[in-house]
Design goal:
The relative contact order is 0.14. The longest helix is centred in the middle third of the chain and has 46 residues. The chain is mainly α and 191 residues long. It is globular. It has one domain.
């Protein structure tokens, strides 16, 4: 690969990460202004295509803001069963998009960084991820240690196999999705 292309790749990856971080900070500051009612009305405007619109909004929207409002909205709009299905689909698609962007743009760069003698422990862990990381990912998904997309980025630049990433993500997404969608479904019964 041409050195100029590698440099461009690194710059695009850094801009992607900075944009995500900026959006999360902006959400932390102004997120209370996010109107679930407006989002619900927007999705409802799609009529019979509302589930597909919701999955698309979820997939793309949660690249830049947390997924919890979307999960609650799914419970409000579609009930528990369908809402859970749509959030799992949207969350899975989102995780694959961010994973693939990170893998294609940042993996080689991070591999180079991990060659440094001061990064030996991280480099060793990265090598271990290559030989089976499903349980690591399930635990990291379930525990509220880091934002969802930070984990997607870290796994994207790691050596984890795509198959392990998919299995760990699907199994790790289930608990938070069940709780949040059920909460949204309960709200429909209260109000």
């Amino acid at each position: 690969m041409h050195p100029k292309f590698k440099t461009l790749q690194k710059i695009v990856f850094i801009v992607f990460i900075i944009t995500m971080a900026f959006c999360l900070i902006a959400y932390a500051i102004w997120g209370q202004n996010l109107s679930l009612q407006e989002l619900q009305n927007t999705v409802k405007d799609f009529g019979i295509w509302a589930p597909i619109a919701f999955i698309a909004f979820y997939t793309l929207g949660t690249i830049f803001i947390p997924s919890t409002p979307f999960m609650v909205l799914a419970g409000l709009m579609f009930g528990f069963g369908e809402g859970l299905l749509y959030t799992i689909m949207g969350g899975f698609l989102n995780s694959i998009v961010v994973f693939e962007i990170s893998r294609r743009l940042g993996k080689d760069w991070v591999e180079g960084i991990l060659q440094n003698k001061y990064m030996k422990k991280l480099g060793d862990y990265n090598k271990r991820l290559e030989s089976g990381a499903i349980w690591d990912l399930i635990i990291l998904r379930i525990l509220p240690i880091m934002p969802f997309n930070v984990l997607n980025i870290l796994m994207g630049v790691s050596r984890i196999k795509l198959r392990d990433y998919i299995i760990g993500t699907i199994l790790g997404l289930a608990p938070s999705n069940i709780i949040s969608v059920y909460f949204g479904n309960i709200l429909t019964k209260l109000f």
